[in-house]
Amino acid sequence: MPQKSPKSIKHWLIASLSGISIVCVLAFSSPGDRFFEIAKNLDIYASVFKELNKFYVDEVNPNQAVKTSIDALLKSFDPYTVFYPEDELEDFLTMTTGKYQGIGIILAEINQTFRISFIEENSPALKAGLGIGDQIISVNGIALSDKPEADPSKLLRGQAGTKIVVKVLKNGQTTPQEISINRETVQIKNVVYSGIIQPGVGYILLEDFNASAAKELKNALQNLKQAGMKKLILDLRENPGGLLTQAVDICNLFLPKDSEVVSTRGKVEEWNKTYNALNPSTEPELPLIILINNHSASASEIVAGVMQDYDRAVLIGQKSFGKGLVQVTRDLPFRTKMKITTAKYYIPSGRCIQAIDYQHRNPDGSAVALKDSNSKTFYTKNHRKVVDGGGITPDITVEKISTSPFTNALQKQHMIFLYACYYRSTHPNISAAKDFSLNPTEFQAFSTWLKKQNFKFESQIEKQFHVISELAKKDKSYASMEPALQNFRKEWASNLDRELSAYQSDILTLLEQEIVQHYYLQKGMNEWSFSKDPSIREALKLFDQNTRFQSILAGK
């Protein structure tokens, strides 16, 4: 049989199978066999949907049903291959361009209310007097509580220049008010902070890699140099990545023209490409430290890994996430799109830092983490040993600050956030962000406030006790064991005062950070952290030890 196109195969298949039962044994030995299987299964899928639509007891929503089936299909590949229906196209464009039309806030649902948890500097919302902690009750007359299925962020967004009326209960007030705000095009910043944090030492926090990342970073570098910067700390922690081209352009700021930055290799050979630095470097000699952690991924790992491969920067922090996959976006019918993983990327040493094998899965369907024993050794420009798989290992490891179950519970139940709202309503002003701290008396005020809230906490020991107790009840000798079990329960029952006392230092840190953000937004929170952040302190210490800094890069 001559080879047919997928479309002609489908027509042939439908005609051939009409009223006939055929048994086929396929070895997938040719493209024709593969096209046959594709056409066959597409026809089966169409028939399944047709039968469901015709006979299922309830009405079938075609958009929702097909979206669910597509999502289930893509879930069998990797988390980065994603389908975007038309109604999610705006979110996709925001992710890639860093722009959206709205008022510049993020809402969090807390105790059946919607409160502002983040607000962009110079945004329409901030200009209108809104602040973190304010409760949004309605948008253009639509009460958020009456529309549980609606996405509040979509109600807030709209064409730039249009007016929006929000009913808001300001933090600390009892009477709601209506505020009229003009929507604008909001640019989500990649560089959320830049400044001199110690004489001669600049600091830049890069949070994303959307279309303006390299431009923003270049501008920040120029401003810091004018302010006296001689050394730089580039913070890529919590940066999930973004556009590969922006990572290449950022590397070009620190590397000579024509330096190889990254190469991509996939199934479609004509798409394989090597990206080189196209322009002369603007900062070829600037001493550089890069901060990473286990949430630094994708494009941020490219920048960190390339700088490490060329011995151009010292990396400090924790091992990065390990995303070595590249996606491209394909246009689909009816204004839909799909982001598809098409290749892996390789940095100049030759290593790929992908940590998860999505092709070979465990029996339960979960993806397999690559084993350290399978890692291969590569070498940097100065012949330092580096390995592939599992992310980028920093040159200096700073242990991640551990959190307790008690402090996790405080944050999960929004107690830290809500107390910061209360604190601001009772304190019109606080000291400068970098100087702000809470004293023991103010911690006691938090403790008193917490006891009046509907806060619930059960320790791990107490949870295990419940399991043991239920098992003991099934034993015939339970009656004799019960007094001892009850005494044990009293001894280890969760005690709020005990937990507050044990974790006072950690709780104070969380409270200070949240309170500063309510007053001074992102910029203030960064300034507060400089004297407390272990990775920043380690970076400043290393810059004071130039011999050690140079010896790390030299591989000595």
Throw out a few tags for this protein.
2-enoyl-CoA Hydratase, Chain A, domain 1, 5 domains, 556 residues, Pdz3 Domain, five-stranded antiparallel beta sheet, disordered N terminus, six-stranded mixed beta sheet, alpha+beta
Give a short summary of the structure.
It is built from 18 helices and 23 strands.
How much strand?
15-25%
Question: What is the name of the CATH superfamily of the largest domain?
Answer: 2-enoyl-CoA Hydratase, Chain A, domain 1
Query: From the coordinates shown, what is the CATH architecture of the largest domain?
Result: Alpha-Beta Complex
Count of domain modules: 5
Textual characterization of the structure:
Helix 1 (6-16) crosses helix 2 (31-55), helix 7 packs parallel to helix 8 and helix 8 (244-254) packs parallel to helix 9 (299-309). The strands form seven sheets. This protein has a six-stranded mixed β-sheet with strand order 10-11-12-15-16-23, sandwiched between helices. Strands 1, 13, 14, 17 and 18 form a five-stranded antiparallel β-sheet that branches. Strands 6-5-7-8 form a four-stranded antiparallel β-sheet. The protein has five domains: 6-60; 99-187, PDZ domain (Pdz3 Domain); 191-400, 2-enoyl-CoA Hydratase, Chain A, domain 1, CATH 3.90.226; 405-457 and 497-538, no CATH class; 460-493. The protein is globular and about 70 Å long. Helix content is 39%, strand content 21%. The model is unreliable at 1-28 (pLDDT under 50). The protein starts with 5 loop residues before the first helix and ends with a helix. It is α+β, with helices and mostly antiparallel strands.
